[in-house]
Amino acid sequence: MTDAGTPPCPPQARPPQEDDDEVALALASVRQAIRQAEAEAGRAAGAVTLVAVSKTQPAARLEAALAAGQRVFGENRVQEAAAKWPALRARFPDLELHLIGPLQTNKVRDAVALFDVIETVDRPRLATALAAEMAASGRRPRCYLEVNTGEEPQKAGVVPTGLEALLTACRDGYRLPVTGLMAIPPHDEDPALHFALLADLARRHGLAEISMGMSGDFPLAVRFGATHVRVGTAIFGHRPVPAC
Ligand SMILES: *Cc1c(COP(=O)(O)O)cnc(C)c1O
Description:
Layout: H1 18-40, E1 49-53, H2 59-67, E2 72-75, H3 78-91, E3 96-99, H4 108-114, E4 117-121, H5 124-137, E5 142-146, H6 163-173, E6 178-182, H7 191-204, E7 209-211, H8 218-223, E8 228-231, H9 233-236
Helix pairs in contact: 1-2, 4-5
């Protein structure tokens, strides 16, 4: 029997599962590590946004992260994101979705419709297509330019010496809402140099958002000025299917 003044507990959407606890605990520990790195770097608490990378993860783990209050997510494939997120967006209108994988021009329409931030703008042809689609749809997701800080031939991103020209074309030519830079440092190098370079490029070009740092190195990225860290396996565990 409940008191007249006490509302009954809301029914649980689903029974709790093992996954839920694991994801909630891992999320809490990643958030704690971010807070600690912010404090150690003399940065304000909350200066860094956690982008939870949910590519290839099963729905139950996404639900667990959402239940634990996570609202910013990263996906690396447009098609996969389009299958997973529209229904969740209807339930969680405050979601913010980041595209963190390569974008083909033929997927630009879907990407503009779905994402709030497109982190992988790296060439004029893509910028042209994005500008056209933003004009047609009226949606204007924020854009980050992806920088290939290691100048790796097989990797996406504009090389550092090409950044200024691409930025000028995107901002002044195509009038894209460019607000930041993103980088994925080479696997086999000390990421610190790459984080420092990306932060320096962002500062010099007056871009406020800096997306760098993944499961293995996000506290270091925070120390170097990241405003967004992209963390997958440290939150969700290993990906059940390899993501490309
Ligand atoms: C998968 C991915 C991540 C997350 O990597 P983890 O090591 O699982 O944290 C971050 N950024 C990009 C671009 C990715 O594709």
